[in-house]
Amino acid sequence: GDGGFAAIIDSNTQFNTSQNLSIYMTTNGWASSSSVSPSVGSDSVGFIAPITTSPDGTTLYAGSNYLYSMNVSTKVWTARLGNKKLTTGVLLYIAVAPTNTSRIYTAGSDGQVWMTNDKGATWTQINTGTTALPVHSVTSIAVHPTNPNQILVTLGGSNTSHVYLCSDTTAGATRTWTNVSGVAGSATGLPDIAHHTIVYDPDAPDTTWYTGS
């Protein structure tokens, strides 16, 4: 089927996906594999739905319009973390902070971005603030490799800028989203087309980022 998200813990334990949140797991480097798809019931699920693992490799996360988690050792799922609907559409991306496994961010097709500090028990919506994100699908999130409070996001659609930085996601009502796309059409700006991925350069996260359209 159509390829989707993948997640790699080590050379043996890995996950891949196909349409509608079908998830497959191997523990022997794909010599064999088995289905570990969650039961999502009446949830809204993206055709290409997101997964990711925690930095310590103990947990797999999967997104419908809610967030699910699976214990990698037992393959037991916990459904609808916090019983919180995180988008009116479907989740497009999940990111876990590299230095804090309790901090998770989700991105919705309706422009909503949510954050949890306790692995999904409670949630805070963060696309709002003194300067809010434009209302476009949020296609990816990158968390700073040493600062769990700083994230970059990419936006889909057109007639907008497509890369935004939040330097402090915990700032509450004073939270600000800074457009870091440059001037569209200029030699140093990003074009006004959908962007789908962004990462920090691990060797120079404060000065160098990479984004893909």
Looking at this protein, list some descriptive labels.
213 residues; mainly beta; four-stranded antiparallel β-sheet; 18 strands; globular
Order of helices and strands: EEEEEEEEEEEEEEEEEE
Instruction: Determine the N-to-C terminus distance.
Output: 23 Å
How many β-strand runs? 18
The total of helices stands at 0
What is the overall silhouette? globular
Q: Name the structural class.
A: mainly beta
Query: Biggest sheet: strands, sense, closure?
Result: 4 strands, antiparallel
Q: Report the radius of gyration as a whole number of Å.
A: 17 Å
Q: What's the helical proportion of residues?
A: under 10%
Mean pLDDT: 97
Please indicate the percent range of residues in DSSP E strands (runs of 2 or more): 35-45%
Give, in spatial order, the strands making up the sheet with the most strands: 1-2-3-4
Low-confidence blocks of residues? none
Explain what you see.
- The chain has 213 residues and is mainly β.
- It is built from no helices and 18 strands.
- The strands form five sheets. The protein has a four-stranded antiparallel β-sheet with strand order 1-2-3-4, with no helix packed on it. The chain has a four-stranded antiparallel β-sheet with strand order 5-6-7-8, with no helix packed on it.
- Strand 3 (22-26) and strand 4 form a beta hairpin.
- It is globular and about 50 Å long.
- The two termini are 23 Å apart.
